[in-house]
Amino acid sequence: MAELMESAIVALDAEGQILLWNRGAERLLGFSSEQVLGKLCSSVIRCRKCDVRDSVAREGKIDDVSVELDHVKGGTVRVRRSARAFFDAQGRFAGAIEILRPETEPALKGIDIQAPNKAEVFHGLITRDSALKQAFQIIRNVAETDATVLIRGESGTGKELVAQALHEESHRRSRPFLAINCAALSASLLESELFGHVRGAFTGAIKDHQGLFKRVEGGTLFLDEIAELPLELQAKLLRVLQERTFIPVGGDHPITVDVRIVAATHRSLREEVKAGRFREDLMYRLRVVPIFLPPLRARRQDIGLLLQHFIDRHNLHGPRRIQSIEPEAMRVLLDHHWPGNVRELQNVVEYAFAVGRSEILRLEDLPPEFREEPILPMAAALPAAESESDQIRRALASAHGHIDRAAQMLGMSRATFWRKRKKYGL
User: Fold this and answer.
1) Does the pLDDT at position 103 exceed 70?
2) How far apart are CA 229 and CA 374, in angstroms?
């Protein structure tokens, strides 16, 4: 059985247009994902004896059939093809997952497959998404300065990895990198942990304590969940940013520090300022350089890439090795909304390795929520007789036309939402 990294994984919509084209597909047939996404599969996967969409729609599934495909450079490649079709409630073709594996002895005629590797690995972050690649370049550029950085992104998108990357790319790399979650401690404990205290400052303070600002001297301090910083400490942090000095709890003279501040939040600081929970002057001091991390659902071409990465890593240890993924399991993984982002995907792979034993990752290896019918979050607020098209129309209106937000309201992936919009002409 071919290694997972060698398999081409292709997802199609009801019209036969390509929704997913992984790195294995790039390597196998020579097209980059940028060239094929949104195009008709029949114009890309040119099978000598079959029409990919029509055959899988007609047969429902295809199991390990040998086919010969055209390569972008003009030659041909022989592969083993498996596919699963999906149908809507009326029995109409709704899309498919194709897995193409090169045969053990690939029959390549007149070509040398050297598809470009579009993935970028940057300090533990892996992506093929252009927005995240742009963020990587911003990190490299700003790391050459001491500018304060604010990282904005949902939980699980890799905010601490970005902070560490900023540190490792900077001239401070030989000095400490320390991190603290501002939501994890009470205001009094957080103040002591950040700024330290002197002996006798409060009951139990039997000796002087150096805070993070002093311990990270010359290095980088990462303040995660900065929106949760209590108002009484925001003024003290502002002073550090403005004057590079602070006073320990119970102290009476300022201490000068040389520290780079990197902060992160999943909230909008502007909204927190409007709500009176965050100082406006501190917000501007923190977001000198804002860096936005897109959620995993907005970079769906990375799902297969990250899946392969985590599987490869687990394959190095333990009794189980996963060599391939069954189409049904791949379908639900691609269609999942990933509210926990990359961290959730990593946990799903760990779960699969713990509960399964086959060389194939199957649907039953995934956590229970992947095998349940999706519950639409808006359902309770919608009239019982409202049709799916009306629900989609209402979601679009509520989200002011924002596709990702409307899809999230209905518990759908962007691809599913887009397909249903097209189906109903919305």
Assistant:
1) no
2) 36
